[in-house]
Amino acid sequence: MRKLFLLFIACTLTLQLSAQVITSPDKNLTLTFELRDNGVPYYKLGYKNKPVIKPSRLGIETNDVGSLAEGFTIEDTKQASVNNTWEPIMGEQKTIRNNYNELLVTLKQPEQKNRFIRIRFRLFNDGLGFRYEFPKQDELKYFVIKEEQTGFNLAGDHKIFWIPGDYDTNEYAYTTSKISEIPSLMEKATIDVHAQVPIKNLAVQTPSMMKTSDGLYINIHEAALINYPAMNLNVDPKTFAMSSHLTPDAVGNKGYIQTDAQTPWRTIVVSDKATDILASKLILNLNEPTAYEDVSWIKPVKYIGVWWEYFVAGKSTWAYGKETNVKLSDDFTKLTPNGTHGATNENVKRHIDFAAEHGFDAVLVEGWNIGWEDWFGNWKEEVFDFVTPYPDFDVKMLSAYAASKGVKIMMHHETSSSATNYERRLDKAFQFMQDNGYNSVKTGYVGKPIPRGEHHDGQWMVNHYIHVAKTAADYKIMVNSHEAVRPTGLHRTYPNWIAQESARGTEFEAMGGLAPEHATILPFTRLMGGPMDYTPGIFQTDLSYYGTGNQRVNTTLVKQLAYYVTMYSPLQMAADLPENYARFPDAFQFIKDVALDWDDTYVQEAEPGDYVTIARKAKGKNEWYVGGITDENARTATVRFDYLPKGKNYVATIYADAKDASWNQNPQKYTITKVQVNSKSVLKQPLAPGGGVAISIKEGNKQETKGLKKL
Amino acid sequence: MRKLFLLFIACTLTLQLSAQVITSPDKNLTLTFELRDNGVPYYKLGYKNKPVIKPSRLGIETNDVGSLAEGFTIEDTKQASVNNTWEPIMGEQKTIRNNYNELLVTLKQPEQKNRFIRIRFRLFNDGLGFRYEFPKQDELKYFVIKEEQTGFNLAGDHKIFWIPGDYDTNEYAYTTSKISEIPSLMEKATIDVHAQVPIKNLAVQTPSMMKTSDGLYINIHEAALINYPAMNLNVDPKTFAMSSHLTPDAVGNKGYIQTDAQTPWRTIVVSDKATDILASKLILNLNEPTAYEDVSWIKPVKYIGVWWEYFVAGKSTWAYGKETNVKLSDDFTKLTPNGTHGATNENVKRHIDFAAEHGFDAVLVEGWNIGWEDWFGNWKEEVFDFVTPYPDFDVKMLSAYAASKGVKIMMHHETSSSATNYERRLDKAFQFMQDNGYNSVKTGYVGKPIPRGEHHDGQWMVNHYIHVAKTAADYKIMVNSHEAVRPTGLHRTYPNWIAQESARGTEFEAMGGLAPEHATILPFTRLMGGPMDYTPGIFQTDLSYYGTGNQRVNTTLVKQLAYYVTMYSPLQMAADLPENYARFPDAFQFIKDVALDWDDTYVQEAEPGDYVTIARKAKGKNEWYVGGITDENARTATVRFDYLPKGKNYVATIYADAKDASWNQNPQKYTITKVQVNSKSVLKQPLAPGGGVAISIKEGNKQETKGLKKL
């Protein structure tokens, strides 16, 4: 008996002390898991024998059932390998490879009646994903999270592209610094943003993009954020240790868990090539396939809108009335028209005409519905009803007019973050859309949330956004959310949640401007989680054109074209005013041509904060589009065409910055050149400071290619 | 010019210094308003030259726009008189007189750019109502309430019937004491109630019933609680000063106001007769008439239910499955049936049969829908979906079966206080009801609210209940809410909000018991605000009958009959099990006969904490019903019949406690006697300790009256 017992102890010790190790399919990455003193779980991650994450804690602290971060023994470990492919409904690639080695560790707490949790690690060639799982069991049914204790102990004082940790907004400008420099830069980085709630201790947001001194790129984010708060990262600027910091709710709790449950995946994308970071599909692979049975109604959307004029023209307004204190119960026909309302029948018809003429799918109309006179800043619950148009917006007439031209109107549901009001009215709002032929909605969450005390990135609001997406699907409606929590690949699971803003987008070009490097960072940060409705396409970049101020969009015109390729989204806006496109019809042709959905994507060059060059093949077509951008520095992009079918010539139309162009000098000067290219061609393309290049590549018949220079 | 200025000053001073006085139409009540030092508004109230409320402050403190409680000058005062009548859709009287003198004071703040508020006083013969009004103006658009500064400075150490101040529950037992004794009794009074949040400083709830040493009855409550938090009363046990204490929200604010707006009415019902307090229609008069155009579908409801068996039988459960951790996404047909589920097809059909046989309108069925396995205590958001029945409850079959018998099933929507979940699903839930022939719903709010941090009695939840009532009206559904905020007469405005619980009701007879005096206090407290679904009619009062424990309902059987008259509600349950009614068919006849809607009401005797005797005339019928109850003491009720048409004899059926009956000895012993009565008859009816009397009075033909003793 005693022998048996010793044997048992020995086995247990073996399990306890021997670290569990898996490698990525290509062997470059190594994940090690072990229990340390007091049964505390640790993991570490290495890449080609370099430490990416030094040994770091794992676990959850609760408010009610004791710690789920210590006192563990290993009950069981399992390994598995998966290598398959799947096809997204829309995406950067027709086919995505899902190839990983998995380690599933079951940890039990002997002093807690053997209750157990699991930690599941999936190690891909492009990085690591892991999550906590809480299986259904008698000893663990409900618990309240005090904090997640996931560590990310970095191996050095890396360069980091960061925005301040915040519970409510992602709309910060990026700061680039060493980790150790974050404290001294935090105050300056915490610029004013609506409804911001910066985290009190030192923290940054994810996706957090880093680069080590020896050239390793590390990106920390999360995947499949469902029924859980979003994660920020606490930062220790001395040890370079980061750790999870969940968004609290109104009473300070961080999450409510009912087993069977799991956390989102914590993701660490790693490579010594920056282009591999952008090419990573790890986050999408960690999300669940959609359960929607019919997805035929989910389609790319290229749209224009009654929108930019609200920011630049200085005369157009969302609001209809002069009054600044209105209620939904008011009779809005009795308001005094302010004379500047944007969403009028006439203006919308003009936009529909333009959209129809140039092949756009939809026209976004903001400011169509009552309530805009004092929609913001009053923490007002009953702020919009989503079904009552202003007196000068005739829904039935405009819907019929749009339908007759083959164009959709894109609905706008600004909620002013009064999420309870929106949920209460959601079915009626979507029914109204369906009744009037709308098939997509831009949602907005400007301001402090209601339920009061909740945050944009907390569990309640996370569930809200998903509730909206799922309910929209019941009505076959696509959702483009603004100011919602940053995306985590959920567009795989809820493909009608077609795009999000959730970062500092083009609108800020009219409100202080974006740094020329901004859009070279976004693909490495915000876009790691999913498509962004960046609303590019601003041709009239000098906004003093409209008669006031000296504000400008800090890019060349051509860089705005390049965004349609560098910023992946199946929903893309041509954000400028129709009359500005009319002034540059040749450049506008690129926006009209460019695809939104792709068979394949080729990240050719990239360095966060400096430049990005991407080529993509249009879905189901022999057409390719290339976008290259640079920061404030001129550079020469190297564009290769090796993805083209071999031995055949194609017509490339190159939209390039003029020689004397830059973001602040002659930004509207460009050249458009047609050349012949084949798979062996290489283009050395100069980009202006704050500039870019955009290229469309099509099959040309003899007539078209005749006389074209070969590249 | 200087002269003019002085004249202006003089006028202002006159307005400032001269108190404004109005009297009630019968001159018994006197209301005085004045501004004191620093422009602080005060009021006082007298009754027949006795002080009811000594000079007390008025005003609002805000969190954002400075004080609205001082710095005022009187801009204007207006007086008006109203004397008219109106007819409630259902009620204690066919016609209600609305007779008051009004003082409307406009107060401006010269140092705040002359922004202004109004205080409107309405002085009825039965008491005072006043409210704050915030007209729309450039200088006052939005503000956040820190606290309302309304004082109720009482004139002495009155006897008071009180429950502890609490933000979340009204389900306390009453304590009777002097005001000065409240501190020493508070701890004992604060018994355990689900989801209670007792107020930290000394406070009691309204309606607050008091009696002065010289026999004046004073009742403080509120009317028309809309878009505002419910009021508790801070208590100073030394000065007998009370003051408003509003229920805070999740972030500690007390209310969000957008002008044009007004507070609920603060009500002070006063009389030297206790019966006048019960007869007062002041609170109803201060509520707005309904805006519903069609009210034909709003009707009295007499119902039985699959309900009491959950409390007493010890074998029946709301839950269907043995499992104690379920999610709405689970397949409930896969649960292990616990064998004790109450809402089965068979049991519901049996209840429908009984209801049809005995003329009931409806059968409440609780526990019909999935989620009851762990519905409470986990602050769980997605707790019920309101549309998915358990596998053994066939909605379509039962709806058809009920319809074939002329009976409705009453829907049950327990929300577990997850109000956001309920709102999200509300339209679908009501559509489901409509599709299946339901026309009334019992809602429940057990547990801590979601949005988390909000309280049952805060502004958000107050708006929620009204939202539910209004949305229900869109579907022609009547609402009977349990655990909602205490009523304030809103059944006039939203008449489909037919009844509420909002106090310690019959269910507590099965959970510790109610004091025999409890139901003699409720009409003076909880019922001042509106009808109560008290769920009376328990015939089997000794609950050890069911085989366990020694719990008992602390009344005689006859007292349970009397409740149908003493507890006004157009919705009344016969709460006991059908098989218990079958054992006492002669007593059950009273429940079958008693009306729910009345032409007139005669409060004959009343003393809070001791006894209540009320007679009522059935709406549109020559039938009268009398209920008399006593506390733990035997007494002789004096029942008069002077409301009967003169010179005509009627048949009175008197349901009386047997001589040796009492609440704890022979509670089921009773006598039923038929006698002739006319308008001159007087009955001296002995009531047992914890007992009562119930009388039905009908026209009898010669055959029926023949041989009947004259009273």
TrEMBL record, chains A, B:
Q: Identify the species of origin.
A: Pontibacter rugosus
Per its UniProt record, the required cofactor names are: Ca(2+)
Q: Which UniProt keywords apply?
A: Calcium, Glycosidase, Hydrolase, Signal
In short, the EC number is: 3.2.1.-
User: What residues does the Glycosyl-hydrolase 97 C-terminal oligomerisation domain cover?
Assistant: 597-698
**What protein name applies here?**
Glycoside hydrolase family 97 protein
Residues annotated as signal peptide: 1-19
Domain called Glycosyl-hydrolase 97 N-terminal: residue spans: 22-289
